[in-house]
């Protein structure tokens, strides 16, 4: 227990290597406690406090640790322990994720790229955790975090200051969620949100489309992961982003047509209006 407390004090170390090793060590200790029937009180309190603060090293370390713990539980198929961790942090995450993803926060959408990237990882893990628990018959409180953040994620993608790689990751995550593939690497391919969640996600997408937000998404700049560039020097389309966005739009409209009666919102998005906006976007 004392070792865990000492490692927690190194979470927000200025040395990235020390911080990373501390996160890994504490996460391993948390998993040990979980397998012995309890959540580490020190870890839980530290993370809950960090989630109430402004973005920075403590928040990043907390998100990394929580993501690591849930990812390990997912790989082991331990839905009961996963449900226990989700219940511990559900209310705090419901307030934290939308706040961080707001483009009006602090320095704007270009200010906290690392923190936002970590939150995108966490959202995928939370999506997969929810799917695993529901498949095992667990009754989870609240709504899917990814569904609650869909509007802010797409609005964030339209910010010109956002790093192209982060925009790409956000759109790929939404695409994977809509085609029931979010977190499949950790669940053995068995993933997928319940129908009401997926319909809510699709409706959120179409509502953002109807507001014209997606017209601000930049498509220039090819997907590039290092090495030596070859070919012409002129601008090219980011095909990964374009494909992901097309799948998001098409799948959302398909779900709107198939399950419109199951959408939870009181006023469904007009499919005609969405089609008009999509047509304008494609042009």
From TrEMBL:
Organism: Mugilogobius chulae (yellowstripe goby)
Residue ranges that the Swiss-Prot or TrEMBL entry lists as coiled coil: none
Pfam families recorded: LINES_N
Superkingdom in the source lineage: Eukaryota
Protein's name in the database: Protein Lines N-terminal domain-containing protein
The Protein Lines N-terminal domain, residue ranges: 78-262
């Amino acid at each position: 227990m004392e070792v865990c407390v000492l490692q927690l004090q190194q979470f927000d170390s200025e040395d990235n290597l020390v911080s990373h090793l501390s996160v890994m060590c504490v996460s391993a200790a948390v998993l040990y406690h979980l397998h012995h029937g309890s959540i580490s009180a020190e870890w839980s309190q530290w993370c809950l406090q960090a989630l109430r603060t402004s973005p920075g090293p403590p928040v990043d370390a907390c998100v990394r640790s929580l993501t690591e713990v849930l990812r390990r539980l997912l790989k082991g198929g331990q839905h009961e322990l996963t449900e226990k961790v989700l219940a511990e942090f559900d209310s705090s995450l419901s307030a934290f994720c939308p706040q961080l993803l707001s483009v009006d926060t602090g320095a704007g959408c270009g200010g906290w790229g690392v923190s936002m990237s970590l939150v995108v990882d966490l959202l995928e893990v939370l999506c997969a955790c929810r799917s695993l628990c529901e498949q095992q018959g667990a009754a989870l409180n609240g709504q899917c975090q990814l569904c609650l953040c869909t509007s802010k994620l797409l609005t964030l993608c339209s910010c010109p200051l956002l790093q192209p790689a982060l925009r790409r990751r956000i759109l790929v995550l939404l695409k994977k969620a809509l085609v029931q593939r979010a977190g499949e690497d950790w669940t053995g391919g068995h993933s997928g949100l319940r129908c009401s969640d997926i319909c809510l996600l699709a409706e959120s997408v179409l509502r953002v489309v109807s507001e014209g937000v997606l017209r601000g998404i930049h498509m220039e700049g090819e997907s590039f992961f290092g090495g030596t560039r070859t070919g012409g020097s002129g601008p090219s389309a980011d095909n990964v982003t374009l494909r992901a966005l097309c799948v998001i739009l098409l799948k959302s409209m398909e779900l709107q047509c198939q399950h419109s009666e199951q959408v939870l919102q009181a006023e469904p998005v007009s499919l005609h209006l969405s089609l008009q906006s999509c047509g304008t976007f494609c042009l």
